[in-house]
Amino acid sequence: MTNHWNDIANSDCMMAIGSNPAENHPAAFGHITEAKERGAKLISVDPRFTRTSAKADIYAQMRSGTDIAFIGGMIKYVLDDMDKNPENYNIVYVTEYTNASFLINPDFQGAVDLDGTFSGYDSSQRSYDRTTWKYQYDESGIPKRDKTLTDPNCVFQLLKKHFARYDADICCNITGADKATYLDICRTYAATGKPGKSGTIMYAMGTTQHTNGTQMIRSYVILQLLLGNIGVAGGGINALRGESNVQGSTDMCLLAHILPGYLKQPINKDQTLEEHNNRVLTSYYTNNDDKSLNWWKNYPKYMASLIKAWYRDVTPSEGYQYLPKTTKPYNDYSWIGLFEAMYDGVIKGLMCWGQNPAVCGPNVNMERKALEKLDWLVAVDLWETETAAFWNRSDVNPADINTEVFLLPAAASYEKEGSVTNSGRWMQWRYKAVSPVGEAKADLEIINALVLKLKELYEQEGGPLAEAITKLTWDYGGSHPDVHMVAKEVNGRDLSTGKLLGSFGALKDDGTTISGNWLYCASYTEAGNMSARRNPDPGMFNIGLYPEWGWCWPVNRRIIYNRASVDLDGNPWDSEQPVIKWNPTKGESGGWDGDIPDGGAPPVNQGGYYAFIMQAEGHSRLFGALNDGPFPEHYEPWESPVENLLSGTQNDPAFKIWDSDMDHKGDPGRYPIVATTYRISEHWQAGQMTRNLPWLVELMPELFIELSEELAAEKGIVNGGRVIVETARGSVEGVAMVTKRFQPFKLNGRVVHEVGIPWHWGYTGLSTGDSANVLTPHVGDANTMIPEYKAFLCNVRKA
Amino acid sequence: MPKAMLFDSSKCMACRGCQVACKQWWELPAVPTTNQGTYENPPDLSAETWNRIKFTEIGNNGTVRWLFTRQSCMHCTEAACVNVCPVYARSPHELGFVTIDQERCIGCGRCVEYCPFGVPKLGNYDVSPRIRVELGTPRTVTYNCQLCRDRVEDGLIPACAKTCPPGAIQFGERADLVEQGRARVNALKATYPKAYLYGENELGGLHVMFVLTDEPGVHGLPENPQVGTYPDFSANELPVWYIEAIDEGKLPVLPSLGPLPGLPATPPAQELGWGAAALWSWLGIGVVGIGAALGWAIRRRVAHGEEKPKTQED
Ligand code: SF4
Ligand code: SF4
């Protein structure tokens, strides 16, 4: 989240799209309720009417996978309305804080010119050469701008040209939304464009899990920037995280392309630390404008401090040599790539730590098969998961499977001490309530024992790259590690004084400081464990910043990009709900009140920097380079029942398509119905933590499939009866839930049905059933490779 | 000052944390369920389920509404269950809730039949480990929400109210909650013209009030429930002294046999002694057992002849 959960209560309008907070974030829904009580509107956009929709002021139906068409039409509505009623928008924000005024290379061609793709596309590689997507620079290397926003090559004009095609009629024909409702949403949400008003977009896996999910988020960002909603209280672009610590695990690099603190994964070309740093620094837009703080220029300090945290006794350059370097494109290291490699017999062993791929993996029959090809599998979990028991599922003969499986019982969250970082980036310390049962151990104990043993073995026996292990600094208190020592290392210290550091501003690139994650520097200082603070004071301006409740990265800044919440003189756009405010009488030469501002400099008009300090150009990007284009463009999902109405480019042109003998694509003739998967309040993720709890099984005892009354009538299916859903990958059977909450879509004069299936079930636990992922395809997002779980094709029949 | 609960259906998002919190606090077991084509489960209240959320789907020309309504004891001021109970097992508590004394309850089932909300349910003594310890002897008694009397007496709020994430369940002084409920209904009227505060006046005032977004009937609640739409049972109630003597351990616990008519209105003379009274009662049970069976049959006939109060099953 750019903002945080408590801040949602400050919003004037909340749009839940690609998310279902009432069902999937029920504990946090109270903040939404609070905003509603203060008069805010809740908009729910979803293929089916959910428990969130039941609480919404406006509900619009949207076919799965068509977010960019839905939001694209809203962007067009706003751009048109800006021309007609500029007084309703914050034009200064758009001109000064976004790259709307930046001029793009005149050779750039967009989707309008190239029938859905952008200049530089190479169809054989399914990738773009981005040369023509660059800014125009003046002779001193500063990007050229036209603050009147009229130059045909300026981002604002390119944006208008791009979205001109997205009129309400075509958007409704693509998405299936009712036009009157759609226009109501456009009007209601556009009203947050007025300075002093705020709107927030809450998204989750309904957005990310598509072949073009990243671009869908980009479309939300563009809408938010045009409406001046980033950086302000009650605004932002807010990813609702699906697990208590998924933000924390992302920060700590539970992803293939990053190291802790979003530092970049070294690749084979980066032979030295210097080469690595140079590649990373120049991969951002270059910029010589000294009004741009360009925070990432500090990258080498963070990288050196991280390496020193891991390899204390050598220089950062030497420590860098011990880091693994990737040799293949990123795709091959993400989930789908790893399972394809297991399936091909390339990967021989798997440690599955609190994960249950035999339920949650896409095309799960294929992923289960991939597990069979492993030599060994270690499952660390609270229960014997489907993954741990994959060799014992009903459709295989255990004697045919040679994988050796180790099941390590893990402690549950209440059985160990540590921290979690929530959606709003708040790090909160938590304590052990009870001891783990049986032989279960905290993850830290398990990894500690494993690393100590590995060090011992490598020291005794050597082996390839043994030094990467033997030289690793690993001292968290011996055989019983102290989680506070880990937290302190994550924060970092000055090696010359031994003192914990108070901020990442003190990190150096010369090997004299360490920090396990620069973003968390300031979380555990000489003053104590900041994440353990529990002061319920809401803090300044009464917008619920709670500055002394836990701790928030970066540097306890509760709302990031908060410099965009004030004008160029530091006065808040919203005087009732300021986030920060310039106070000329504070200190010697003035200072900021409220939240911790992005960088401590004074307002722009008093010599300060541009508002978006993390971007090289100091401005947030309406035009920004992703693998599949600088602007979001609507493409149909990989499996779709209809042709793309906007261009001749049917699918996102840049995602990777895999072609093993189990990767099948469904044909709309045979599979004419759209299917989507989701979670419900009563169960959690792959289900082990809930399908083993009788009280929750009582609430939701079986796999069910939601479908409309019309589709049920067509297929002779009755409510409460059994139904089979089939895709090109496999089929599942469940209870039919025939409901008015799913309505057939009317798409350009055609009726298209959609069905929905929760994915929590599997073959172990108290409540068992088919995993919906038997149905899902093995394709993923063009930028992140997150699997396409949300839109695919199926057929249904009475069981 | 009486306490009360305010359930706001406009805020409830049907997460059913309250259903589980109730079971957790009272150590009530899960019941085996199947999916019946609805999110709602278990399908009804029972000895093991004292609180549940009903899901009502209403469609109208392509638009749909999904109402979430609590079903649980309403803690009526004019409580049918209190009035029909022959052994004073149900009584109004000064804090506003209707308590059940399961040690007194003989499982005769009158409250089950006459509660206008279909709330009390019969079940065995060992429904939860906690209650089994309290009751000791195997028998059938009635169960329902007791507004977490034990928690409230210790200064806590009921478990369901404690867990409810959006604050759809408030607990506090009844007078305050009436105010709050009225204000909420007024605010909701702009969007829901039929918004209504249910329980402000119904049955002498309920101690569980609902903010509704539509008419009570649409939410599955009886419209305008009335006091006294059940036979007058005052003639075949056991006298208070007899029940109190059981409470004090002077007389044996009654078996689950239904009403015992015909005992004198004042305690037996001290010289007669409790031993004699016990003997009398146990001797009497043989006779009365037959009488009770007869009485039961008659009562059932009477009951079915009368117009019963409307329950949401109707
Ligand atoms: S806990 Fe609250 S929101 Fe959840 S179902 Fe119960 S009353 Fe509704
Ligand atoms: S709801 Fe039924 S059980 Fe509860 S007090 Fe009223 S009559 Fe008695």
Question: What is shown here, in short?
Answer:
Chain A has about 800 residues and is α/β, with parallel strands linked by helices.
Give your account of this protein's structure.
The complex is a heterodimer of chains A (799) and B (314). Chain A has 799 residues and is an alpha/beta fold. Among the domains of chain A are: 123 residues, no CATH class; 123 residues, Rossmann fold; 126 residues, Barwin-like endoglucanases (Beta Barrel). In chain A, 25% of the residues lie in helices and 15% in strands. Chain A is built from 23 helices and 29 strands. A six-stranded mixed beta sheet of chain A has the order 23-25-24-29-22-28. Chain A has a five-stranded parallel beta sheet with strand order 3-2-1-6-7, sandwiched between helices. A three-stranded parallel beta sheet of chain A has the order 10-11-12, with no helix packed on it. In chain A, helix 4 crosses helix 8, helix 4 packs parallel to helix 10 and helix 13 packs across helix 14. The model of chain A has no long low-confidence stretch (mean pLDDT 96). With 314 residues, chain B is α+β, with helices and mostly antiparallel strands. Chain B folds into two domains: 216 residues, Alpha-Beta Plaits (2-Layer Sandwich), CATH 3.30.70; 80 residues, no CATH class. Chain B has nine helices and ten strands. Chain B has a four-stranded mixed beta sheet. In chain B, strands 2-3 form a two-stranded antiparallel sheet. Chain B has a two-stranded antiparallel ribbon with strand order 4-5. The radius of gyration of chain B is 21 Å and the shape is globular. Chain B starts with a strand and ends in a 9-residue tail after the last helix. Classes of the chains: A alpha/beta (799), B alpha+beta (314). Chains A and B meet through helix 2, helix 3, helix 22 and strand 25 of A and helix 1, strand 2 and strand 3 of B. The structure holds iron/sulfur cluster (SF4) (2 copies). The site of one iron/sulfur cluster (SF4) has 14 residues of chain B, from helix 1. The site of one iron/sulfur cluster has 14 residues of chain B, from helix 1.
